[in-house]
UniProtKB/TrEMBL annotation:
Keywords: Kinase, Membrane, Phosphoprotein, Transferase, Transmembrane, Transmembrane helix, Two-component regulatory system. PROSITE patterns: HAMP (PS50885), HIS_KIN (PS50109). The chain crosses the membrane at residues 20-38. It catalyses: ATP + protein L-histidine = ADP + protein N-phospho-L-histidine. This is histidine kinase. SMART domains: HAMP (SM00304), HATPase_c (SM00387), HisKA (SM00388). Its EC number is 2.7.13.3. It comes from Streptomyces griseoviridis. GO terms for molecular function: phosphorelay sensor kinase activity. SUPFAM superfamilies: ATPase domain of HSP90 chaperone/DNA topoisomerase II/histidine kinase, Homodimeric domain of signal transducing histidine kinase. It is found in: Cell membrane. One of its GO terms (cellular component) is plasma membrane. Its main location: membrane. InterPro entries: HAMP_dom, HATPase_C_sf, HATPase_dom, His_kinase_dom, HisK_dim/P_dom, HisK_dim/P_sf, Sig_transdc_His_kin-like_C, TCS_sensor_his_kinase.
Length: 495
């Protein structure tokens, strides 16, 4: 399988389609949760309304019975009034007619003594008595054989008085129970209707949400497509194209700005590379031309050639080529490493400077090299890299100094500061940064150059940066003074 091929073939590749599908899926989950909540809330509210309606009817029936009146059979909800010691119902209506309670009561008579006026809600099974169904009405509510929520309350016949009890057709010591069947069908119908509306509205909403997300992302990605098309035309040899930065200030603006900054860095890197290659070719051509000319003249006139002088010239130019090649290889290695990732060995810069002062071969016997340090100065890094950095600074000073080169090392708070100061002609302030560029040699330095490659200071600054330090040219009235500052490490003797 291709590494770039997605493992899930069913998942759309388009960002627009993926976003629309993700938004629609999220919306479906939200709508489903909302629909479930609405469904249960509507059903709960409808059931509560049905129970309140049944309770009102129950108390209304109780009030009529206390007055000795037989309730109207055309009740809103099915009801039945039964009494102990009586086979048939005292009163019924609201759909109980189909069960023929006039022949035999449907719901049970009270078998226990309960406090009169106490409301009770209980599920009861209504028996299916097909042999007593009324052929005229029938069980049109479908109550028979089902279990339904029933509200009931008891009334004592003794509290009604003998006359009212006689009007109701019950004994004076009988107990009456008023039943009202709660019918949640209205709530169920409302719930079913609400569910249908929610389902249709949810489907339409999902389609609209997915379409809106698709086209919104499509519009939002137009600048990205323009950026992609433009960056596709950028080549390593010509990274001068720039993308248009939208004025909206959103993430696309940040993306365009970042891409332009990246393209600018690529352009700068390509320009530096071209300049580096051109400068390297120029620096290599000079010793090669001298070497070739010397050898060709000697070969053309071998009998008159000064072969020792020719060999000396060839050796000098070869050493110059070797030094240039080593510097170029070092720069190539430094360019491939991440900044700030130098080895973390403990290095005493005071000891390094003192050792270099003792071993450094001065090109002129009139030059003096001294080291001024008061105490060990510890830092962390690569000892060879620090020695190469310091040697490059001393090499540069030796080529320009008149009589004296001085190295100083000091501990200043959390930094170690090393300076290399010579008494040469100095460097103009305008060129204080340019001298650290690769292959840059000032006119005065070039006229007095004794084999420098023009890379020493560039390598020194790069090594300083890789040790989280800085290398700058400090202003001086006499000569040049290079200032190196690196992080200070704890003295092992103090630990």
């Amino acid at each position: 399988m291709n590494a770039t091929e997605p493992h899930r073939r069913w998942w759309p590749r388009s960002v627009r389609a993926r976003t629309a599908l993700a938004v629609a899926s999220t919306a479906a989950v939200i709508l489903a949760g909302t629909g479930w909540w609405v469904h249960h809330d509507v059903h709960r509210q409808g059931t509560r309304i049905a129970e309140e309606q049944a309770e009102r009817q129950l108390w209304s029936l109780c009030a009529q019975l206390r007055q000795g009146a037989v309730p109207d059979p055309t009740g809103t909800l099915p009801y039945e009034v039964v009494a102990s010691g009586r086979r048939s119902a005292v009163a019924y209506g609201g759909g109980m007619d189909g069960l023929d309670p006039g022949t035999r009561h449907v719901l049970p008579v009270p078998s226990e003594t309960r406090e009169p006026g106490l409301l009770t809600i209980r599920p009861l099974r209504i028996p299916d008595r097909g042999d007593h169904k009324s052929p005229s009405n029938g069980d049109w509510l479908g109550l028979a054989g089902g279990t339904h929520t029933v509200m009931f309350a008891d009334i004592g016949a003794a509290a009604l008085g003998g006359e009212k009890a006689a009007e109701l057709g019950v004994a004076a010591d009988a107990r009456l129970r008023v039943y009202v069947v709660v019918l949640p069908r209205t709530a169920e119908k409302i719930t079913e209707t609400t569910d249908g509306v929610l389902l249709r509205a949810g489907l339409v909403s999902l389609v609209l949400i997915a379409a809106a997300a698709y086209f919104t992302v499509r519009v939002a990605l137009r600048p990205v497509e323009a950026i992609r098309a433009l960056t596709a035309s950028v080549t390593a040899s010509d990274p001068r194209e720039r993308v248009t930065v939208p004025a909206t200030g959103h993430e696309i603006t940040a993306l365009a700005t970042t891409i332009n900054a990246t393209l600018q860095r690529l352009d700068d890197a390509a320009a530096r590379q071209r300049r580096f290659v051109a400068d390297a070719a120029h620096e290599l051509r000079s010793p090669l031309t001298t070497l070739l000319a010397s050898l060709e003249v000697a070969l053309a006139y071998p009998e008159r050639a000064d072969w020792p002088a020719t060999a000396t010239t060839a050796a000098r130019q070869t050493r110059r080529l070797q030094a240039l090649a080593e510097d170029l290889l070092l720069l190539a290695r430094l360019d491939t490493r991440a900044p700030g990732r130098a080895e973390a060995e403990l290095v005493d810069l005071t000891a390094t400077a003192s050792r270099l002062t003792e071993q450094y071969p001065l090109p002129d016997s009139q030059l003096t090299l001294t080291c001024d340090s008061t105490a060990p100065a510890y830092t962390r890094g690569n000892p060879d890299a620090y020695e190469r950095l310091l040697r490059n600074l001393v090499d540069n000073a030796a080529r320009h100094a008149a009589h004296r080169i001085q190295i100083t090392v000091r501990n200043e708070d959390d930094r170690v500061v090393l300076t290399v100061h010579d008494d040469g002609p100095g460097i103009p302030a305008a060129d204080a940064e340019r001298v650290f560029e690769r292959f840059v040699r000032l006119d005065d330095a070039r006229s007095r150059d004794q084999g420098g490659t023009g890379l020493g200071l560039a390598i020194a600054r790069d090594l300083a940066h890789r040790h989280q330090g800085t290398l700058t040219l400090a202003p001086r009235t006499l000569g040049a003074c290079f200032h190196l500052s690196v992080p200070r490490a704890a003295d092992p003797a103090e630990g």
